[in-house]
Amino acid sequence: MTKISTATRAAIKQEFPNLTRDVKKFPVREGEEPWTVREAEELAALLVEDKERLERELESADRELSDLLRNSGDGAGDDQADYGSSALEREQELTLVNNMRDLLDQTNHALDRIRKGTYATCELTNLPIGKARLQAFPRATLSVEAKAREERRGA
């Protein structure tokens, strides 16, 4: 994990006032060390930073998509190739915006779980998600086993 500044640490303590208490309840898998306040602060800081970045990128992508949609009917003399290219560009931009929105939703959900003291607990099984999994993917809401089960059902 990365080291966070004193100012960031203070902001995390302000945004998550119960983190020092709640981190003691964050479950771990067998063989893992208990969560430390520093580890939880680092993940929270990473998620807050991601949230702010995603909000900026989403705002910019929304503007670009609006411009594309607004200008899509401008070329009365466009041929089919131009029209197809414009449609593809709009579709790609829409997919990008939707993916960013999903990621922002996942980030907000992870931050809410930290606030509520339910972070690190699998939403399906109530078992530990695993510290290593959360350090690799802080937005995870399911343990590896629950995620594999979910994917098998969806496949």
Automatic annotation (TrEMBL):
PANTHER family: RNA POLYMERASE-BINDING TRANSCRIPTION FACTOR DKSA, RNA POLYMERASE-BINDING TRANSCRIPTION FACTOR DKSA-RELATED
KW Metal-binding (keyword) present: yes
Record key words, sorted: Metal-binding, Zinc, Zinc-finger
Keyword check for Zinc-finger: yes
Domain Zinc finger DksA/TraR C4-type residue range list: 117-152
Organism: Promicromonospora alba
InterPro entries membership: DnaK_N (IPR037187), Znf_DskA_TraR (IPR000962), Znf_DskA_TraR_CS (IPR020458)
Name of the protein this chain belongs to: TraR/DksA family transcriptional regulator
Entries under Pfam families matching the protein: zf-dskA_traR (PF01258)
Region (Disordered) residue spans: 59-89
ZnF (dksA C4-type) ranges: 122-146
